[in-house]
């Protein structure tokens, strides 16, 4: 019986160690991906907001009425919407790319 107990203990502890290592790696990769996506979104938002503000400021230099018209057409939410749109489609393309890589990898096995 002690041999069986040692065997079961080693099997379960080995499985628990493998599972902990696998889940830890998966969580670390997920956190890194979320951090990168968040940083890219914030950078894109700031860039688009700067470009929109520069466009509206440039429109005011031509004529105050032209600038007011452009300011009415361009919503204050434009920067966030454009950034979200580009980030969403970038994530979709990244997903498709990863699926294609996995399919190619499975064909080589």
UniProtKB/TrEMBL annotation:
It is found in: Host membrane. The chain crosses the membrane at residues 26-46. It comes from the Bacteria. GO terms for cellular component: host cell membrane. Pfam families: DUF5455 (PF17537). Keywords: Host membrane, Membrane, Transmembrane, Transmembrane helix. InterPro entries: DUF5455. This is Uncharacterized protein. The lineage of its organism: Bacteria, Pseudomonadati, Pseudomonadota, Betaproteobacteria, Burkholderiales.
């Amino acid at each position: 019986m002690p041999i069986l107990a040692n065997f079961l203990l080693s099997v379960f502890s080995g499985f628990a160690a493998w599972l902990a290592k696998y889940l830890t790696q998966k969580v670390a990769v997920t956190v890194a991906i979320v951090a990168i996506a968040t940083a890219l979104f914030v950078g894109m938002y700031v860039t688009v907001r700067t470009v929109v503000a520069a466009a509206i400021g440039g429109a005011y230099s031509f004529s105050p009425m032209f600038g007011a018209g452009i300011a009415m057409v361009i919503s204050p939410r434009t920067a966030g919407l454009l950034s979200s749109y580009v980030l969403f489609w970038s994530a979709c393309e990244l997903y498709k790319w990863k699926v294609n890589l996995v399919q190619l990898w499975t064909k080589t096995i």
